[in-house]
Amino acid sequence: MALPEQTGSGEPLIQVENLCKIYSLDSGAAGSKGGGTVNSQVLFDVSLSIHRGEFVAIMGHSGSGKSTLMNILGCLDTPTSGHYWLDERDIALLSDDELARVRNRNIGFVFQGFNLLKRMTALDNVATPLLYAGVNRSDSRKRALELLHQTGLGNFAAYQPNQLSGGQQQRVAISRALVNNPQLILADEPTGNLDTQTSREIMAVFQQLNREQGITIVLVTHEDDIAACTRRLVRLQDGRVVHDAGVLA
Amino acid sequence: MSLLAIIGEALRALRLNRMRTGLTMLGMIIGVAAVVLMLAVGQGAQTMVNQAISSMGSNLLIVVPGATSSGALRSASGSVQTLTMGDAQAIASLPSVKAAAPLITGTAQLNYGANNWSTVVTGVTPDYFQVRDWGTDSGALFTEVDLRSATRVVLLGQLTAKNLFGDEDPTGKTVRIKNSPFLVAGVLGVKGQSLDGRDQDDAVFIPLTTGQRQVFGNQFPGTIRFLMAQAESAEMMEEAEAEMNQLLRQRHRIAEGVENDFTVRNMAALTAVASGAAKVMSVMLGAIASVSLLVGGIGIMNIMLVSVTERTREIGIRMAIGANRRAILAQFLLEALVICILGGVAGIAIGIGGAWAVSQAVGMVVVITLGTVLLAFAFASAVGIFFGFYPARKAAALKPVEALRYE
């Protein structure tokens, strides 16, 4: 497969402008009088554009706002102000159902804690997004099994998450993320719960997906060697982008 | 997500918590079983009352001698003998009255071979059987000829026939009433219990004239014990009652302002009260049983709320991979509904079994209709939707980020 060189061509897949996120907390416990609220701003005017086929690492200390940014990019949370276009669609204009559809069709999630559904086989875990997309059970399972084979877990389809190792669980999670052929994979510290060797294997899977299938991957991490596996590094500090440049391989 | 897939998910989730599902379902099972059982018992009672009412005969009016009160002194009606055969004939010729049957009654000993049986002997005219809508199982009713010539024929009630003859066919045989021989003309059909609880099949009937002249004797010849009249139709009951009152006052020469020396009882009013009471009982039993169904429903709501809280993270994951609010709502609503429907079906089965056991154990009449079963089923489903909706909506209203972050 030829190396897809989509970077810089056409409209960006992700276009973020002046994104702000303010969390309002009830002040009851916070000490101020009356029923006022305490506002805490987590993102300040973040602007970012990511093109199709990019492999981006977002780094920052805890509290830097990287998880909040990921949640907004993943349509799990909404910004307080600013704009977010995903594939040229203004996310702020979408209803809850349309957001669910975007999460289902356009985005695949990989989490630090794997977030697989308990007491469900690996196969059913991978097939679930297809069920929500309205695909019937047998077709869903066929497609899910294909993906498990692709990530090297073909023999573990009938296992439940608690019977699998961390690395295997993360592979199941990646299979699930890929099952609806998304344009974008968002990975929130995908190697955070894994040992070095397994982390390297998981990163190899991501690199392969990016290189061979041209899937755009945005990954949050605070480990430098993980970030080094990507092709672009965005560093956040106190809710602002302080660094954005290509990674020297 | 297709409905089938959601049902699959719901069943899977319920299987994971067998114990909890079972206990929640038990609440539902008990509730539905109680409703089915109570309705069966209530409708059984209603059926019994209705049978008693229809066994009495339709559009019936009863005239008894004596007033319920005479000045300050209240006497039992029937304690004096003021009605005569002439009154009966006059009433029979009223336009609103189809037939009138005078009666005299007494108790007597009957013998057949070595068997004897003491029962109520009633002297009647052939009209009586028309009024009571009563026919024979074997043999034939006696006729006007028997009445005119005061023949010694007798019709036996089912119970009397059984006690005297066992399995023999009594028709054509001879029984002795107060030692006089009587030819058995026939055996009457089964009537069952009357409204006041007497067994109507424990009786024998002889021609009125035979009774007057040969069996009872009478202080006042020509008087009768009471009479039964049948109105032309249900709508004419009131009219018949009024006409009979007027006629009898005239015949008995009762002056204006003086109380009647007879009482006309409209049986339609009585039966309305009796069937009304049975219906009220039926409704009351059902209402009491539905309280347990309500408690079962609250149990479901409670468990579903716990379940939603426990599975907040699962809900978050499902939302992240593309479940919309409707899918989450449907999943939890269906879980509640599945509990209710399975519990409802089991409850219906247990309720039917319980009703059968009750009928076997205490000999009560129980009636289970398709309506009862459908009502119980609909009730169970309604409880599922009603009590499952709030927890399901709570689950669907969760914000994806917050649900995912939930530990």
Automatic annotation (TrEMBL), chain A:
Alphabetical list of InterPro entries matching this protein: AAA+_ATPase, ABC_transporter-like_ATP-bd, ABC_transporter-like_CS, ABC_transpr_LolD-like, MacB-like_ATP-bd, P-loop_NTPase
Pfam families, per database record: ABC_tran
GO-annotated cellular components: membrane protein complex; plasma membrane
Record flagged with keyword NAD: no
A GO molecular-function descriptor: ATP hydrolysis activity
Biological process terms in GO annotation: response to antibiotic
Domain ABC transporter: 14-249
Keywords, comma-separated and alphabetical: Antibiotic resistance, ATP-binding, Cell membrane, Membrane, Nucleotide-binding, Transmembrane, Transmembrane helix, Transport
Membership in a protein family: Belongs to the ABC transporter superfamily. Macrolide exporter (TC 3.A.1.122) family.
Name by which UniProt lists this protein: Putative ABC transport system ATP-binding protein
From TrEMBL, chain B:
Recorded GO CC terms: plasma membrane
Ranges for domain MacB-like periplasmic core: 21-246
Any one GO molecular function term: transmembrane transporter activity
Coiled-coil region list: 230-257
Keyword Coiled coil: yes
Protein name: Putative ABC transport system permease protein
UniProt family annotation: Belongs to the ABC-4 integral membrane protein family.
Ranges where the ABC3 transporter permease C-terminal domain occurs: 287-399
The species this protein was found in: Nitrosospira briensis
Subcellular location: Cell membrane
Alphabetically ordered keywords of this record: Cell membrane, Coiled coil, Membrane, Transmembrane, Transmembrane helix
Annotated TM spans: 21-41, 283-306, 327-358, 364-390
